[in-house]
Amino acid sequence: MSQDKLRIIPLGGVGEIGKNMTLIEYGEHILVIDAGLMFPENDMFGVDIIIPDMTYLLEHRDRLRALIVTHGHEDHTGALPYLLSKLPDIPIYATRLTQGLIEVKLREHKIREAQLHTISHNDKLDLHPFQVEFFHVSHSIPDGVGLAVRTPAGLIVHSGDFKFDHSPVDGQRTDFAKLADLGREGVLLLLSDSTNAETPGYTPSEQEIVTTFEQAFIQAKGRVIVATFASNISRVQQVLDTAARYGRYVAVAGRSMINNVRMAQELGYLRVPDGMLLSVEDARYLPPEKIALVCTGSQGEPTSALVRMASRDARTIRLQPGDTVIISATPIPGNEELVNRTLNNLFRLGAAVYYDELFDVHVSGHASQEEQKLLLNLIHPKLFVPIHGEYRHLVLHAKMAEQTGVAPQNIFILECGDVLELNGDTPRVIGRVAEERVFVDGLGVGDIGEVVLEDRRILSQNGFVVLVAVIDSKTRLLLGTPQVISRGLVYNRESETLLRIMEDEVAKLVGEGGSVAAINARLREAMARLVYDTVGRRPMILSVVMEV
Amino acid sequence: MSQDKLRIIPLGGVGEIGKNMTLIEYGEHILVIDAGLMFPENDMFGVDIIIPDMTYLLEHRDRLRALIVTHGHEDHTGALPYLLSKLPDIPIYATRLTQGLIEVKLREHKIREAQLHTISHNDKLDLHPFQVEFFHVSHSIPDGVGLAVRTPAGLIVHSGDFKFDHSPVDGQRTDFAKLADLGREGVLLLLSDSTNAETPGYTPSEQEIVTTFEQAFIQAKGRVIVATFASNISRVQQVLDTAARYGRYVAVAGRSMINNVRMAQELGYLRVPDGMLLSVEDARYLPPEKIALVCTGSQGEPTSALVRMASRDARTIRLQPGDTVIISATPIPGNEELVNRTLNNLFRLGAAVYYDELFDVHVSGHASQEEQKLLLNLIHPKLFVPIHGEYRHLVLHAKMAEQTGVAPQNIFILECGDVLELNGDTPRVIGRVAEERVFVDGLGVGDIGEVVLEDRRILSQNGFVVLVAVIDSKTRLLLGTPQVISRGLVYNRESETLLRIMEDEVAKLVGEGGSVAAINARLREAMARLVYDTVGRRPMILSVVMEV
């Protein structure tokens, strides 16, 4: 029997564990699953995106066998440009649509070289010591897969993002037969999607929302505008199908959505009747009742097509009373305020609005509790590691595994970066090799951490004050008038008196002498007290005393 | 017939209209209803609270007849300290519990003088030209009222915050009989609570959550900790009742909750068995299975009792595996991320957690659609103005009014500050006398607006850079070495090279001469470009060139 060790390492996710990347390591060989990004929470100031901590991959680049991408959503593909900038040679395996979406993304990042390999559901890959098979899973995007990974230590099944949709828009069901075969063969470990572990029952089929779309199209007097995620190709198909039935042309707004739709159409993942797709510009010249529009903005993103329309800011489309808007998504936690503002603005414009509080406009792409249990029972693994969820979701999913017969001591709730070693009869966490996350801000990857964020938090609350004074290095006397400048503290017109008082105070305190460091400390303390006593705020205070 | 005009002016609320204050004006007389606050949204940086724009009240202080407070929640009482600091003599009418909560609040703000008058549901007030009657309404706090205001122009009914709870915890039902009487008498105008206009059916009774409380107390092995709003006196009563049944003592944690519970007990609004209430300190010495704890923190507020317990930060209570936590509230929009983090930390500590995704731990205090329609049909007003809701809620409530027979031209959806004049047959909005809101930050009321907030937003995203250079006023030559300081831009250790490059560049650019203004402009532009090219960020850049 081999002495090599089998290890599982979940990476990435803001609060979610193993959402963006998971490593399967056997001896000196690493298989990487997914390379996705997350968007920052409201108090992660100035962070553009968040990617997994890939230090371990870079330190062991000689061990990397391949990256397999399960489907084309951002939270599974979005870190690829960052991974490829460090590891351009890693072979990447993905299905056709997933590969198409990856190519769109790499073009946007001006990355020209990547070792992309197309796979289909029936392929078997020999990535020694891993033998990888795929099984189709239904999700809110076509062409998603889960993985069966044979290792010398046993068979591992990774669910990918999945649901059991019995009537998916793309006609591709989750592959029950292959899952049953794998279960019969004997699975050492199941890694499974925990996103909806709080949701009882079954997730409805994508088809369920067709009823709402029909109702909206039948009752619409003006244009019908559908906002959804740019990658939600299935939802775009539903708009196309409904528009075709009710004699409307379809235009697409929003850069990322235009790119994705074009690619999906080219690859044959969107069925578009000839002449049905129009540009937004052309759509302006047709009567409103002949037009449907698909666009971004379902999360109230300030620069999205829908929000610009709702704030009368759009170049080409002006919302008008009688238009119908369908927000075909639910707000991601943290986005509720932006979504609510957008909804209110749409109502102010007199639009008929279909949204999730009132209508069935969206269904989740993830398995609910009964589906999670069904997968557990099809696979009946010896070991279980819940992934793709926040800590509470993993705990709830673990309880379901226990209910379906997995022994409690064989269920492992991991944190991001934990290394679970599966050897012999006592699998255990042997250490931690990664942080929970890496912040990306502008061109910088990982160069801002808690210190910078805490500074930004203080600045966001009360702004800052800078005191500048010049002293003669010989006489120690003040030269010229000190300057006090503030931003984000008080409205400037109101603050002038305060600033003048501060300048007088600075002049006085500099006159008390001492080293530059001593003067700076004295000024900071006195100014902090003065500001707090006057306006009750605690801005950041910098003192710059220059000797010349 | 009187030539005086009747006007309705809703004020305040972040996005919500007339939530925090509503004015009824007849001729030269103003009746003020409520004086509440709102909490800021995530992008209102550094704002502590938000109060209504009371300029109109201050400009017409001679017209003020009285302030009537409908119930004791913050969004109806929280602006009182600010109102009283400007208008200390305004007579305030409120029921006993509401008055108790107001007194707690005024003590916290060190306001000693206020003209507080206690009313009961059966009182009639003559506040010429207004004759005011009250009717009891059930809500998530005892002792709430709605108003019937007789004016020479007709009878106005204001619902307050209400639901039709058929089995309220305090035994006080909404007064159907008086509502029916008013309807029979003939109501000119109904102003009614729109909060839950998106929710079909009926809001469940407060009693519904008893089942969940029972289940939690029966299964709990360790302590039972219930987090809810500090003002939710009815929920505290439910904890006391359940604890009594299962032989547990009750401790209260969180300053505001301790104050409210003490006051409600003194006034007889909480029924507490003798010796049942303990201090948190004393609770430490009893076995966990004898303890229930009520505390603040249901919204994940970082300084609340629950969050400190969940982050192992509390002085006196340490959560341990086996403890049970009930989050008896739903997240207010914008708080989801904080609530989710708290939940995950509670799960990490091994607590059994009852929360709204999984259990019936909370019911709304506001009427759902069928109750809103019931009130409309009991009152059958001639005119209808939906209040207490975001714009979309008002539109949905207006549609219900139309369904119940109010003529569409007699329904008015107002924005904050709109003046609706009701005279003769053509009521109409004649103008606007207030902004949507006033920000309070520290000691400052209304001194920060869009400019300061935009500065704080920029600072929160990318921090700032300050360049300081001293030049000789005669020779125009640089004196000493320029200094470049940044905060919130990049992690300092990484940024040193960048700062040195910038200092060299500043020295070079100062040497090119020109006026101080010209040098400052040149420096700002060059530094912005340098920073953007290096790290892809756009910090705020200040240039301070001093002539000495």
Task: Label the CATH architecture of the largest domain in chain A.
Answer: 4-Layer Sandwich
Question: Quaternary arrangement of the chains shown?
Answer: homodimer
Give the N-terminus to C-terminus distance of chain A in angstroms. Answer: 76 Å
Q: Determine and state the CATH class of the largest domain in chain A.
A: Alpha Beta
For the biggest β-sheet of chain A, the strand order reads 8-7-6-4-3-1-22-23
How would you sum up the global shape of chain A? Answer: globular
Q: Give me the count of strands of chain A.
A: 28
Which spans of chain A of ≥5 residues are poorly predicted at pLDDT below 50? none
Which two chains share the most extensive interface?
Answer: A-B, 68 and 69 residues
Instruction: Tell me roughly what share of residues is in helical segments of chain A.
Output: 25-40%
Q: What is Rg of chain A? A: 28 Å
Strand content of chain A: 25-35%
Please, how many domains of chain A? 3
Q: Could you state the CATH homologous superfamily of the largest domain in chain A?
A: Ribonuclease Z/Hydroxyacylglutathione hydrolase-like
Mean pLDDT of chain A: 93
Could you say which structural class the secondary elements and strand pairing of chain A correspond to?
alpha/beta
Query: Which fold name is given in CATH as the topology of the largest domain in chain A?
Result: Metallo-beta-lactamase, Chain A
How many helical elements of chain A?
A: 16
Largest sheet of chain A: 8 strands, mixed
